[in-house]
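Each record in this resource describes a single protein on a pair of labelled lines. An example record follows, reproduced without changes.
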Amino acid sequence: MLETTPPGTRNRHVSRLIRGALVAAVFATVLALFFGFGLHQYLSVQGLAENRAWLLQQISLLGPAAGAVFVAFYASAVGLSLPGAAVMTITGGFLFGPLLGTVYTVVGATLGAIALFILVRVGFGNALVSRAGGKVERLRSGFSENAFS
């Protein structure tokens, strides 16, 4: 029997499967390490209260770089879908005050969401689009027709 798939299609399909498997493996590994090392215990209100003095000391030692470190941690937590985003938001306000805490939290959440979007798009994008059928194309055409609203 003759094969009806165009040349190279099989290789692209295998490549997409490998990318998806790698992204899933990274997520699973990070979550396993996160819980395996007991880091989840620090992403709680109780963990925040218990480590208050140490956290404030680290903020004073890092100085202006403390905000960048917090943004990086927050973006990593969001990008890797780690639990505890609400506690991290509270921590931002606690460590930096309401104004800077809000700014750092929003920047970290946005960067993390962008990273997560890119990871999912690279790993699973084509597979998800093909499963959604024509719905994605309708959305795309609607966005391009009236992008402002």
About this structure: The CA atoms of residues 30 and 36 lie 10 Å apart. The helical segments are 9-36, 45-50, 52-62, 65-79, 85-132, 134-145. The chain has a mean pLDDT of 78.
